[in-house]
Amino acid sequence: MYPWFAMGHLIPFLQLSNKLAKKGHQISLIIPKNTHSKLHQFNLFPHLITFIPITLPHYEGLPQNAETTADIPRHSIPLLMTAMDRTEKDIEQLLLQLNPHIVFFDFTEWLPDLARKLGIKSLQYMIGNPATAAYLGSTQADAIGFKGSREIEGPFVDHLANQFGKPVLLSGPAIPDPPSSSSELLLGLELTGFPFLAALRPPSGFESVESAMPGGFQERVGERGMVHGGWVQQQEILGHTSVGCFITHCGVDLDQSINARTMSSYLKVGVEVEKGEEDGLFTRESVCKAVRSVMDEESEIGKEIRENHNRFRSYLLSKDLESSCVDSFCNEIRELLK
């Protein structure tokens, strides 16, 4: 995929890539080299979607290091288009190396001819209204695509198919999938700056936890963080003096919300990670905020939680507690049986 270098085009192309990768397809997305940090968080399938960085040649009139429309005033957009046109040789070399079945583009009109020369099919993927394609559609591409559906854009699509005499494909509405909860958890732990151990199951669609890690995550955290995909000795880990905070889903299924409220609001031995009002999902920022509120020695919330922990710890570890509870339980059963 080689989209126009504007975030309003790069992100829809990445959204489409996520939809295709979810079906098991491999995608190479050619992007300006300095936009990787802005886009990697939206790559939900880093094991299938590869970012291919490309250096945009400088063109007179463009600011140094300008790569996208966000880096330039509106009147300089034609200059950016010209700079992208000068990447044709680089794109040809990339296509020879990658040998894709099909190449997606939107504004680079020379791509269909280049693809045809290399024996590759081309598809012009338009992110706007299908009516726009009546004016901007490529007569050279093998097909035209949109992020729409037949139920909504059907008549326009039929008209375009007749006008251009080629297939018009609909990818469905480009509604972004919610971020993976495992990715958000890991990225939240990274944001805290604290050492951590994360014991997780592989998310749906992944064979291992490692393959589901956010792009560049392991390289950034290094030895500060460990991610384990199997079973661990939880009691032994939590009993270690180095552990200062425990993140848990609070039981199973229907118990989770009740347990979380009990621990945070009633017993006050923990904090609940904030979740979105609309989608009910937590974010990396909310994970980081919760952990820091507990770990910060100057935090009033953290102080209260540590005091309550010490109080309950003394009670739960008191001598003969378990035995006396069982004795009381048995005595009440005897009374019940009389």
Automatic annotation (TrEMBL):
Residues spanning the membrane: none
SUPFAM superfamilies per UniProt: UDP-Glycosyltransferase/glycogen phosphorylase (SSF53756)
InterPro entries: UDP-glycosyltransf_plant (IPR050481), UDP_glucos_trans (IPR002213)
Gene3D superfamilies per the UniProt record, alphabetical: Glycogen Phosphorylase B
UniProt keyword terms in alphabetical order: Transferase
GO molecular function term, any single one: UDP-glucosyltransferase activity
Stated name of the protein: UDP-glycosyltransferase 79B30-like
Organism, scientific name: Senna tora
Source organism phylogeny: Eukaryota, Viridiplantae, Streptophyta, Embryophyta, Tracheophyta
